[in-house]
Design a protein that fits this description.
The chain is mostly beta strands. It is 13% helix and 47% strand. The chain has one domain: PCu(A)C copper chaperone (Immunoglobulin-like, Sandwich). The protein binds copper (II) ion. This is Copper chaperone PCu(A)C.
Length: 169
């Protein structure tokens, strides 16, 4: 018992932020609505189902820096792809293109940065297999100051199908 107690306490601490979400959505993926590492809060993370043989998938979420110092998302990794990148959308001439943020994504102190379709996003390059709706895709995010955390991105319907659903994402 004396050995089990600390483990149990640790497990409780790890689960605590997820509990409200689990209570409401006990039937689906274990993705809590928000998780926190250091001063960074990660909210509403999701990915999308891919079509068969799609080379890439995207990752989306809202990152809020609750600290008084700027932080930076510097890298992203996932077992479903050979490489994770951080992308922005930018105008090149009169064409909107995405490009990699080589220095990562700045998350200014006290501000939120939204990663969303058509804006900043995570890009999983060289997909290994495909992502099906309902999958939970583990993604490891590393912040310059807040450190490293692995979260599950629940996979919604594919981009191609999204407009028909009439949802925000
Ligand atoms: Cu991209």
């Amino acid at each position: 018992m004396s050995l089990r107690l600390p483990l149990f306490a640790l497990a409780l601490m790890a689960l605590a932020p997820a509990m409200p979400a689990l209570a409401q959505h006990a039937h689906d993926t274990h993705a809590p609505a928000a998780v926190t590492i250091g001063n960074i809060e990660i909210k509403d993370a999701f990915t999308r189902a891919t079509l068969p043989n799609a080379p890439v998938a995207g990752g989306f979420m809202t990152l809020t820096n609750k600290g008084s110092e700027d932080d930076r998302l510097v890298s992203v990794e996932t077992p479903i792809a050979r490489q994770g990148q951080i992308h922005e959308m930018a105008m090149e001439g009169d064409v909107m293109k995405m490009r990699q943020l080589a220095d990562g994504l700045l998350i200014p102190a006290g501000e939120s940065v939204e990663l969303a379709p058509g804006s900043y996003h995570l890009m999983f390059m060289g997909l290994i297999g495909s992502v099906a709706e309902g999958d939970a895709v583990p993604v490891t995010l590393t912040f310059e100051k807040a450190g490293t955390i692995t979260i599950d991105l629940p996979a919604g319907c594919s981009a191609a199908a999204a407009p028909a659903h009439g949802e925000g994402h």
